[in-house]
Specification:
two-stranded antiparallel sheet, alpha+beta, 2 helices
Length: 87
């Protein structure tokens, strides 16, 4: 699956779980780090953890695991690295 479609799937999961201020930044051709950044906010630390867990769960169901993640446990912020898409 291409990175644009993948980022759209992530956005759908975030929307379904009521994430706020969802933004997708297209970095294609501008950096070698990633093609897309998807940024979203949660209403609380619990909501943020729930968003993270749901993205991870739904992407794993689709057969994709994050290469690495940071900040997930705290729930204040998190980064999920899916290679061409950073969340």
């Amino acid at each position: 699956m291409d990175s644009k479609t993948f980022s759209e799937q992530i956005i759908k999961v975030l929307q379904d779980k009521k994430a706020e201020d969802i933004v997708r930044v297209n970095l294609t051709g501008k950096t070698e780090v990633s093609d897309y950044f998807v940024v979203a906010s949660g209403r609380s630390m619990t909501h943020t953890r729930s968003l993270i867990e749901n993205v991870e769960y739904e992407m794993e169901k689709a057969g994709v695991r994050a290469i690495r993640s940071e900040g997930v446990r705290e729930g204040r912020w998190a980064v999920l690295d899916y290679g061409d898409v950073l969340v």
